[in-house]
Write a structure and sequence with these properties.
Blueprint: H1 3-14, H2 17-27, H3 31-41, H4 43-54, H5 59-69, H6 74-83
Helix pairs in contact: 2-3, 3-4
């Protein structure tokens, strides 16, 4: 990929609230407690957690299944998030 495009994508991802939330969760001492606290203040996150619970409660499995339905490589998404931590 073009180096300039890579830099722009990296900057966009670093400023993305989802990436920032991912960073917080990945570095938290107790990620589950942090997610529950975040859900109390963020209705979209609460809806997401409710959706996960309604679909078996396994967020990883649900993520992979939904990525497959969207014909998206879930590992690409995960790697992009990790590279912007």
């Amino acid at each position: 990929m073009n180096p300039i495009l890579n830099q722009l994508m990296g900057t966009a991802l670093q400023n993305n609230p989802i990436v920032q939330m991912f960073r917080q969760v990945m570095t938290a001492q107790n990620p589950n407690m942090l997610i529950q606290q975040m859900a109390q203040n963020n209705s979209q996150l609460k809806q997401t957690l409710d959706f996960i619970n309604q679909n078996g409660g396994n967020a990883k499995e649900l993520f992979y299944r939904m990525a497959q339905q969207k014909q998206t490589d879930p590992n690409t998404i995960i790697n992009n998030l990790k590279s912007n931590m």
